[in-house]
């Protein structure tokens, strides 16, 4: 049987040309395998390019440091929901992953002795909760740009095959559950292609565009998550979304934590450095969930700045113009362009803004997608991998520490590539692609040929407003339940939406419709998971359940689309080689 | 405020030639950018096609020509633009549809300069050292976001798009020549020493004027030229 659409065959297909996808691709291309990278935008336009502050690794270039302390901080930062084996794996491998990037040519900023520059970030400590550590490696405040371009450049050298502006629609799966590749739309021609492969990696990034205001790029629409849900597989811990304390109000653009790392601090309308009240030790460099809640409290108490009292000030002018120009040039640019403020002269207005998805596609340490298929919650789905922000290993648990995402990309991107090599060696022959598997995907596409009276843009805005209002920094059962009802109405409207753009060539309206289907699926997973978790942990703060509850909730949520089913699996508290960090009360 | 726009439209499937389409929209321009208005127009007319991603000037997706200047739509303020605001695709590249151009030639030139570090020494246990002064040589080079605003404003590229590498690619070539960790400067200079690839640049400086990141390709090109002169002596 051969499907009726054009086909390309590879050993491995990687969906996503961000940091995670490119790091994995490099591993495979260097081993001389046939690997294709599909990306809906030219790879260096991926969202990784926006990352600012840096990548965390215990290099000890500035302060004493070692990976054990990094591991402790990450476990604590995760509010003990992170899997400690995965966290050990990441922190242990962090220094070599960063050195590897340097060897690849990444233009890190430098210290006087020629070593990689590091800056302090939130939640970093020496000696298991002691003094502030200095652990985040940076290329000015454009670390993501430096990292993404470097990885793309190395892939050019390794002769990876790129399919730029190809939009993956869905996974191709056979009766026994093997993943056999993806069907993707060539955006320019509007033609669907089958990309057949013995191993498929999803590295499609985040999905913060479920919110009205977010730090994320427009393309962060959770496509990989939608694909996984439609394949009948679950998503993990979708109730945990990080609100970054310092986004520019309305616009959403991020002001990196590196600003506070370089000495900046927050002020309320009375000019009070209020973080001292909420986190007496770490103050402005407490964990992000803590700082975001503190700001939200200040705003609620009427101590916000501006006409509507809906933001606070981030002061940095005291470190001096030269330092700002050298270490934070990108922030200065953004602040002038989008807040109308030169941080050399005046404080930047900031407010908590949706920023990062801690949950995602459940994976093993080797980036294999795992699901409760037959023998318990952790069985690998043959042929399917996930890495980067779309995956949940879980190293970030209930709250990610700054600088740990870029690290996650390269450590688990590499691990994915390594494991795929073994998988490809063990499975040398492709399995046949059943025609109906491809037909299913084509049906999804055909749906958008039907006319409809609702407009995609209206439904998108409606959904984003629901999520903004009903799934913010603070939640409770009533708010979430109403949110779910409203979201269901939006889903009905989406079912009746149609397109007026009928062209096949670069039809961006059609892409936005397909993206919205994914966003809706992610939003639903989020609300259902959040309503069920009756405790407060990390970024999930329930007014009606203000405490963490380790007796019942030290476990991961697994959400599946059919009947909104919820399952749970235990947190892996046992690290690979060291002692468990036992859950204890979290203060900064 | 009622605002007026004139936007380049082309859909190869329509069988119609490209045209400028007039739009009117009630829109408060204060603090808003050209991309905001393109997206608002798309909510009214979803057939309008353009690229965008980061919406903050760091990904390089939305290079377009606004009132005759190559810019990134997402960081170009609406206030102060003469109306009707005319938006066209970047000049002299083949148009795929509306504001979307085919960038293949641009990326081919980028690949041609071998834009990656070449260093054949065994990798040390930790980082290769680089002094802050050596590292400073890369500032103003590595920040290029490959938006093509410069190259598509360069008359030399217009006349020789296949053979002249253009300001962006040349600057990326120099980014590696200038890197104290790179060992292939000679090989790179050999490739660039060519009447077309490099020497079609006549210092017209359009590239500098239009770079939305404030980078200076002309200076980088000048440095390549002086390295070639030095090498010849
Ligand atoms: C403003 C900002 C600043 C940040 N700063 C930092 C920081 O300083 N340090 C840190 O550690 N983290 C930071 N983060 C987080 C970090 O940047 C992201 O989590 C990370 O870059 C995600 O990388 P990724 O490879 O998973 O995905 P992305 O880089 O988002 O890449 C996703 C890729 O998937 C492709 N794709 C998606 N859907 C499809 C589809 N349907 N078909 C084909 N291709 C598809 C896209 O084209 C893209 O290539 C920041 C995040 C933001 C928003
Ligand atoms: S300086 Fe050179 S590269 Fe720049 S616009 Fe002029 S001719 Fe083109
Ligand atoms: S040099 Fe400037 S204008 Fe040219 S591609 Fe790079 S960022 Fe764009
Ligand atoms: S959208 Fe990224 S540069 Fe404008």
Compact description:
By secondary structure, chain A is an alpha/beta fold. Chain A has helices at 19-30, 67-77, 84-104, 143-157, 223-230, 258-261, 275-278, 288-300, 321-327, 329-339, 404-426, 435-446, 456-470, 477-495, 508-532, 550-553; strands at residues 7-15, 35-39, 55-56, 118-119, 136-137, 161-164, 166-173, 179-186, 191-202, 235-236, 241-247, 265-267, 312-315, 348-357, 361-362, 368-371, 379-386, 391-392, 474-475, 541-542, 555-560, 565-570. In chain A, a hairpin with a 5-residue loop joins β7 (166-173) and β8.
Describe this structure in words.
The complex is a heterodimer of chains A (588) and B (233). Chain A has 588 residues and is of the alpha/beta class. Chain A contains 16 helices and 22 strands. Chain A has helices at residues 19-30, 67-77, 84-104, 143-157, 223-230, 258-261, 275-278, 288-300, 321-327, 329-339, 404-426, 435-446, 456-470, 477-495, 508-532, 550-553; strands at residues 7-15, 35-39, 55-56, 118-119, 136-137, 161-164, 166-173, 179-186, 191-202, 235-236, 241-247, 265-267, 312-315, 348-357, 361-362, 368-371, 379-386, 391-392, 474-475, 541-542, 555-560, 565-570. In chain A, β8 and β9 form a beta hairpin. Chain B is of the alpha+beta class and 233 residues long. Helices cover 30% and strands 14% of the residues of chain B. In chain B, the strands form two sheets. Chain B has a five-stranded mixed beta sheet with strand order 2-1-5-3-4, with helices on one face. A two-stranded antiparallel ribbon of chain B has the order 6-7. In chain B, α2 (104-112) packs parallel to α5, α5 (166-177) packs antiparallel against α6 (185-192) and α5 crosses α8. The radius of gyration of chain B is 20 Å and the shape is elongated. The mean pLDDT of chain B is 96. One iron/sulfur cluster binds next to α7 and α8 of chain B.
């Amino acid at each position: 049987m051969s499907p009726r659409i054009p086909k390309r065959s590879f050993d491995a297909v990687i969906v996503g040309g961000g940091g995670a996808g490119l790091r994995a691709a490099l591993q495979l291309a260097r081993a001389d395998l046939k690997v294709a990278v599909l990306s809906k935008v030219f790879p260096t336009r991926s969202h990784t390019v926006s990352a600012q502050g840096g990548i965390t690794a215990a290099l000890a270039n500035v302060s004493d440091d070692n990976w054990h302390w990094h591991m402790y901080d990450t476990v604590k930062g995760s509010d003990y929901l992170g899997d400690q084996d995965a966290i050990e794996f990441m922190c242990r491998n962090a220094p070599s992953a960063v050195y590897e990037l340097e060897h690849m040519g990444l233009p890190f900023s430098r210290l006087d002795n020629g070593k990689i520059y590091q800056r302090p970030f939130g939640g970093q400590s020496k000696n298991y909760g002691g003094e502030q550590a200095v652990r985040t490696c940076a290329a000015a405040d454009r670390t993501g740009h430096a990292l993404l371009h470097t990885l793309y450049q190395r892939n050019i050298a390794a002769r990876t095959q790129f399919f730029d502006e190809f939009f993956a629609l869905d996974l191709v799966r056979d009766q026994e559950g093997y993943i056999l590749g993806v069907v993707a739309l060539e955006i320019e021609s509007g033609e669907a292609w089958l990309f057949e492969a013995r191993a498929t990696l999803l590295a499609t990034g985040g999905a913060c565009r479920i919110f009205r205001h977010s730090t994320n790029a427009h393309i962060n629409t959770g496509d990989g998550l939608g694909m996984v849900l439609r394949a009948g597989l679950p998503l993990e811990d979708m109730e945990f979304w990080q609100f970054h304390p310092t986004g520019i109000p309305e616009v959403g653009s991020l002001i990196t934590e590196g600003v506070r790392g370089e000495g900046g601090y927050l002020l309320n309308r009375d000019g009070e450095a209020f973080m001292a009240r909420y986190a007496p030790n770490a103050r402005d460099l407490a964990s992000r969930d803590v700082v975001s809640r503190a700001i939200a409290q200040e705003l609620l108490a009427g101590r916000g700045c501006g006409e509507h009292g809906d933001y606070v000030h981030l002061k940095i002018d005291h470190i001096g113009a030269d330092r700002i120009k050298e270490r934070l040039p990108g922030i200065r640019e953004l602040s002038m362009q989008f807040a109308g403020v030169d941080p050399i002269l005046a404080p930047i207005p900031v407010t908590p803004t949706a920023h990062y998805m801690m949950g995602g596609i459940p994976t093993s340490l080797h980036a294999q997608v795992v699901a409760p298929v037959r023998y318990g919650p952790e069985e690998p789905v043959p042929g399917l991998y996930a890495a980067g922000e779309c995956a949940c290993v879980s190293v970030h648990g209930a709250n990610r520490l700054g600088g740990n995402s870029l690290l996650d990309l390269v450590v688990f991107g590499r691990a994915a590539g390594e494991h795929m090599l073994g998988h490809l060696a063990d499975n040398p022959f492709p399995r046949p692609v059943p025609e109906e598997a491809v037909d299913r995907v084509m049906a999804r596409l055909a749906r958008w040929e039907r006319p409809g009276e609702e407009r995609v843009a209206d439904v998108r805005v409606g959904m984003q407003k629901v999520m903004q209002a009903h799934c913010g920094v603070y939640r409770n059962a009533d708010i979430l339940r109403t949110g779910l009802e409203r979201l269901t109405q939006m889903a009905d409207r989406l079912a009746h939406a149609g397109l007026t753009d009928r062209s096949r060539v670069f039809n961006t309206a059609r892409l936005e419709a397909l993206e919205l289907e994914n966003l809706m699926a992610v939003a639903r997973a989020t609300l259902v998971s959040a309503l069920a978790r009756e405790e407060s942990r990390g970024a999930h703060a329930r007014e009606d359940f203000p405490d963490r509850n380790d007796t019942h909730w030290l476990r991961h949520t697994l959400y599946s689309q059919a009947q909104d089913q919820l399952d749970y699996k235990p947190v892996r508290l046992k690290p690979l080689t060291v002692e468990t960090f036992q859950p204890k009360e979290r203060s900064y | 405020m009622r605002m007026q726009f004139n936007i380049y439209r082309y859909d190869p499937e329509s069988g119609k030639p490209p045209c400028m389409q007039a739009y009117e929209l009630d829109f408060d321009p204060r603090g808003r950018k050209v991309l905001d208005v393109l997206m608002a127009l798309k909510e009214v007319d979803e057939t309008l096609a353009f690229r965008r991603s980061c919406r903050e000037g760091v990904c390089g997706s939305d290079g377009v020509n606004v009132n005759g200047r190559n810019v990134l739509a997402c960081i170009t303020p609406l206030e102060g633009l003469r109306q009707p605001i005319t938006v066209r695709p970047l000049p002299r590249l083949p148009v795929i549809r509306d504001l979307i151009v085919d960038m293949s030639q641009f990326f081919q030139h980028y690949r041609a300069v071998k834009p990656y570090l070449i260093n054949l020494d065994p990798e040390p246990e930790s980082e290769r050292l680089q002094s802050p002064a050596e590292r400073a040589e890369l500032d103003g080079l590595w920040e290029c976001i490959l938006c093509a605003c410069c190259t598509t404003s360069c008359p030399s590229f217009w006349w020789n798009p296949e053979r002249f590498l253009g300001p962006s690619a040349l600057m990326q070539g120099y980014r590696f020549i200038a890197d104290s960790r790179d060992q292939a400067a000679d090989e790179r200079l050999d490739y660039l020493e060519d009447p077309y690839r490099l020497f079609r640049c006549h210092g017209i400086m359009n590239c500098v004027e239009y770079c939305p990141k404030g980078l200076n390709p002309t200076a980088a090109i000048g440095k390549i030229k002086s390295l070639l002169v030095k090498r010849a002596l």
